[in-house]
Amino acid sequence: MSKPEPIWQHLPFHFKEDVVSYLDFKSKCSLRMCSKDDQKVVDSRPITIDYFGLNLTERPVDDVHKNTPAEIVLRDKDVTMSKFFSPHSAIVYFMKIFKLDKKFKVNTLNIHVWNYNLHSNHFKFFKNFLECMNTEKVRPKIRNFELPTSFMDEKQLESLVRAVNIEHLETMSLGCATRFQLENLARSEQWTKVKALKLHTRDQIDPRWVSHIQRLNIRVGKLSPGCISSLLKDLLSNNVPHGSFISVSTYYPVVNTRNATLNNIFKKLISASVASVPSSADGQIDYDALAAKIEMLRPNRYWKRAHNIDTRALNQFKNCYFSPIQCVLMERRRK
């Protein structure tokens, strides 16, 4: 009986393309090195990986990766690959991956550089990183850009975001950003392309910067009632798709009292943006009644008293064998 011939070589080209589309990134790279025909098959399909992470931190003296503190993590489907590099080698590897193919895309790109401030290493790393991106003309095609790091130089954050390709960018997550950095980012094309934003900052923001965001999750230092009203008005007035939301939290309270906060917020809202608003006899909006109506929507469990305290004299506890609590319980049972 003759030995069966391999099936892969006899498959039509479009069948091979369908098979390659189900492979993870590591398998595609392995198949690409088998032959020139397989290389053409892999290159004919767009390469998309789920996660690309670049982590860099200062390592202790006795750490195994002291000289290679940069870690690059690739995750595609159920396969995860990670390798440690020196900072310069990590930049070279990053550029090589994104220059691998013009069709190369990443769903989530995470760049996390922290605790790397010794001898201005943080500034030097991003300076070399941005210079290599400009020299190699690398514009990463990513869908979700996560940047949970703070920048010592105010222009490096803006330069890094502007280097991203705007065709596929949809969401962005910024860990630490100043008002000056956000003001410059708001004028970029990448910022206007973003539909979902997660932001942490200690400064105040301008509502006009995030008026186009459909899914907004921010934590800021302070917000005035007028700013909150403007955010709500944009969400209610714009024709946003299903699933849009705004989540805002502050490091400091808006005002001292909650009732004043509700009144100030709703007084600045446009009446057309709020449905079924209570009005007075002259047709004006009754903001106090509206605030009371919102207060009535609180769950009933917040209205119940947590404890019911009864005052009793010592002569009411006749049996010293039991504790006072047991005496009260026995008295209730008799009733």
TrEMBL record:
A Pfam family reported for this protein in Swiss-Prot or TrEMBL: FTH
Domain of life of the source: Eukaryota
DUF38 domain span: 124-239
Residue ranges annotated for the F-box domain, each copy included: 8-48
Stored InterPro entries: DUF38/FTH_CAE_spp, F-box_dom, FB224
Coiled-coil residues: none
Protein name according to UniProt: F-box domain-containing protein
Provenance organism: Caenorhabditis briggsae
